[in-house]
Write a structure and sequence with these properties.
- The protein is mostly helical.
- The protein has eight helices and two strands.
- Helix 1 crosses helix 7 and helix 4 runs parallel beside helix 7.
- The protein is rod-shaped.
């Protein structure tokens, strides 16, 4: 959400403080969420709302922090407008100037002058420009500093560079989502394939176990049948021996009877 930057000159003191707080919230959130546009790669400062508010009220002591932040912001804006930003007295593009904490106030003035006409509804902007023409940035009032920073942040957030960055991030998010969806589909297919392979493996294993068990049962039955046959064979042999013994006994008895008959005949 873009916070209004209209003048608070006719507002009560509490409303002025609230407007400054809103601008501080806008600045800190913009810097935090879109740091690649507001903070250069070689600046490792973490621009929290507390740090920015302290730098605003500390005057010259906080100027280094604010100047580094404004230089980062101006670099994005100058890159966006290039030759459209010119220093009036020198008639040279602002993009040719090496920004530093010593000329950042004048550079902010050049940029604010370039947007003064397009922001004609901003009642505080003319006073801010007038103050920058006569004072160093660190000598401005906290309201003017917050207003200047808020305007610069709004300009960045409405620039083509910002739109390009948002579109690139959106495209990156869409690609990541597609990649995640594709990866999830592949993982699901792999999981199904592994499950099917395990099912086939388990089925083959069960079949093998069943086959082994059937073979063992068949072998056990054959062994039992062999034992029964052996038992039957042993029984039949015993019966044959008994019959032979009976025949021998009968023959012996017959022989004894015949001998007795012969003896009786001799006696007669």
């Amino acid at each position: 959400a873009v916070v209004s930057t209209q003048s608070t000159g006719e507002l009560p003191e509490e409303m002025k403080e609230q407007a400054s707080f809103q601008k501080l919230a806008l600045i800190s959130e913009a810097v935090h969420c879109y740091s690649q546009l507001f903070v250069s790669n070689d600046d490792d400062t973490i621009y929290t709302g507390e740090l920015i508010s302290q730098a605003v009220v500390e005057g010259a002591r906080g100027h280094e922090t604010l100047s580094n932040l404004m230089i980062n912001i101006l670099q994005t804006l100058v890159q966006e407008k290039r030759d459209k930003l010119r220093i009036r007295d020198l008639a040279i593009p602002l993009s040719t100037v090496d920004l530093s904490q010593f000329n950042v106030g004048a550079s902010v003035l050049v940029y604010l002058e370039s947007i003064e006409e397009s922001r004609s509804d901003d009642e505080m902007l003319p006073d801010l420009i007038t103050a920058l023409r006569t004072e160093e940035f660190y000598n401005l009032s906290p309201d003017h500093k917050f207003h200047a920073l808020g305007l610069l942040c709004e300009e960045v957030c409405s620039s083509g560079t910002f739109g390009t960055m948002v579109q690139e991030n959106t495209d990156r998010i869409h690609r990541l989502r597609r990649d995640l969806q594709t990866e999830a589909i592949l993982r699901n297919k792999q999981r199904i394939s592994d499950k099917q392979q395990r099912s086939v493996s388990d089925m083959l294993k069960n079949r093998h176990v069943d086959s082994v068990e059937r073979n063992e049962e068949s072998s056990s039955k054959e062994d039992e049948e062999d034992e029964e046959k052996n038992d039957e064979g042993i029984g039949s042999e015993g019966e044959e021996e008994n019959r032979l013994a009976e025949v021998v006994r009968k023959r012996r008895e017959d022989a004894k009877r015949k001998k007795k008959k012969k003896k009786k005949k001799k006696k007669k």
